[in-house]
Design a protein that fits this description.
The chain is α+β, with helices and mostly antiparallel strands and about 400 residues long. It is built from 16 helices and twelve strands. It has one domain: Cytochrome p450, CATH 1.10.630.10. α5 packs parallel to α16. The relative contact order is 0.19. Bound molecules: protoporphyrin IX containing FE.
Amino acid sequence: MTVESNDTILDYPFSNPSALEAAPEWERLRTECPVARIRLPSGDEAVLLTRHEDVRAVLSDRRFQRQLGTSDAARISNEDEGGFLGGEVSIASGEGHERWRKLVGRYFTARRMIDMRPQIKATAEGFLDGMIKKGSPADLSAEFGFPLPVWVIGMLLGIPEADRNIFRRWSEIMLNVSRFSQDEIDSSQAEFMEYFTNHVAALRENPGDDLISSLLDVADSAEDDRISAFELVLTAQGLLIAGHETTSHMIGKMVAMLLADRARWERLLADRSLVRYAVEEALRFDVNPGIGIPRYITTDLELSGGTLPAGTSVICSMGAANRDGTVFADADAMNLNRAPNPHVSFGGGQYSCIGASLARAELQIALELLLDRLPTLELAIPVEQLRAREGLLLGGLEEVPVRW
Ligand code: HEM
């Protein structure tokens, strides 16, 4: 099985039949053409991998870098949507990234994630109270899914509560460059830089229990392990971009998927021990996880689906890999007690999601709270009317109208 014949270059991304239904191409390519030629929105060509085994093989191979913006690699779009994740900054790849990852990884311990739970819960309760007070029906996404993760990142970075709403706006602009003017993007970058430089100086004077204070500690104590002030700002920006909309959209998509079939909601109401499995299954079952994970292949590579020559730009489809029937029994069914569940929604290998345990905590807390407080929750519109919000890096739902 090799790359589709020369004249078949598929336009990518594919469109889904509806907001909660997978693109039919996933299944077809996985079985017939697991190493498929595609044309990206930039017009550049790349190869799409759809099998779980192949996606895992590429992601776990340390030789392959994430940037598609360097050398002769394909670009996803003509606008720079890569930001921190795709940028050509010192901490984005190679040794600089390895050092950064070690430093930042020290903060994301299991213990700390457990310690953050009560604060995350209290914040989530605050937003839910606000939504309930405004009354049924409501847009769960706008009232609950969107604000929660940005507040959690604010917590992580030691941002005072009063300033967290500005963060929301910056995150929106920085992640969706194609929807804003160059002036808006430039000024939001400049404002972020200025705010953060002052914030770092304030934390130096008055350190807290946040990630930035812990990095400052390292920076000040070990000469050879320094993280520069600029890298600190990039870290903050990177966390905001990587951790906000991803989690926000996932809260909305998870709730929509669970309410799309009320039997799922009822099962969770009857048995809360299913919540953490349901969260993993929602991550796996997501049909709109964005374009996929890009890698640049620097040496010939044998995969189950064919050979990739050096110099290939690859997109690993998490969505297609997550529905691979050779790994997941009855892959097209949402199974709320699926275990094990080796989905690739958080990537894998050296660049895998550093915030995965935090995202899991947020999703679990959000779901538990909704089950406790709003057991009668249901979608306020027919499932077919849910509208997908397509984004290149990640996708979600425009709104999640609910009533209770
Ligand atoms: C449901 C929510 C989330 C999803 C689906 C998700 C998904 C991902 C994926 C697929 C990657 C790998 C990208 C690649 O290999 O090129 C990644 C990386 C990353 N994620 Fe997440 N993420 C989520 C939440 C978060 C949160 C809450 C944070 C932090 C607060 C975060 C921070 C990061 C960072 C910093 C990276 C880059 C890691 C590195 O370069 O080593 N993510 N995420």
